[in-house]
């Protein structure tokens, strides 16, 4: 019983410490509410100031779930390639031109599409994650985004002076050329101080190797939310 209470006290202390950090990484909105409730109970001198809650756009189960089936067009192209390969193996027919055309259809669709995290064969890889494989790559991917936010976050001065708070959600691309492209920023505030700051913060993410599908670099769409709190 004493050991149990000791462990509970340790976990509670660790949770309190995390919730009082400048940048708090959370999995869902409930986690934000829990942290804010914990912080409200602290003395004024202990309450965190100029804080942001960072929520990434995915969970492991989304990344690992079964991919969506290919479209009918791509499926038909794959079946054509398979049939031609079987005929070639039997020495009945040689039609390399048709095979090349089918491959072009697949590559063309891949090169013009935008994919989600769980739809690609390999996710974007930051420099510090290069030697990892499997789930470790995903964990490192999330970690590098979190570290970037933690190391570079400073509450915008203008927002601080005007006591502006709120949740900003940003949708962006990990482009196939290795750049970041902002797609959309959702900010409930009329002035765009927080959204402009968030865009600049995301644009400065570390360099990365783009995602790939069918051996081709592809753009990957991603989303994260920053809940600014004073």
**Which series of helices and strands comes N to C?**
HEHEHHHEHHEEHEEEE
- Contiguous helical run count: 8
Overall mean pLDDT stands at 75
Number of strands: 9
Return the structural class: alpha+beta
The backbone outline, from C-alpha atoms, is globular
| Unreliable stretches covering 5 or more consecutive residues | 1-15, 59-69, 80-93
Distance between the termini: 39 Å
The value of Rg in angstroms is: 23 Å
Task: Identify the strand order in the major beta sheet.
Answer: 1-2-9-4-5
Strand content: 15-25%
Q: Tell me about the largest β-sheet.
A: 5 strands, mixed
Helix content: 40-55%
Work out the count of structural domains: 2
Description:
By secondary structure, the chain is an alpha+beta fold. The protein folds into two domains: 22-56 and 117-229, no CATH class; 72-112, no CATH class. Helices cover 46% and strands 20% of the residues. The chain has eight helices and nine strands. It has helices at residues 2-19, 29-40, 60-64, 72-90, 96-112, 135-152, 157-161, 193-203, and strands at 23-26, 51-56, 125-126, 166-174, 180-186, 208-209, 211-213, 216-218, 220-229. Strands 1-2-9-4-5 form a five-stranded mixed beta sheet, sandwiched between helices. Helix 4 (72-90) runs antiparallel to helix 5. The longest helix has 19 residues, at 72-90. The radius of gyration is 23 Å and the shape is globular. Mean pLDDT is 75; it is low at 1-15, 59-69 and 80-93.
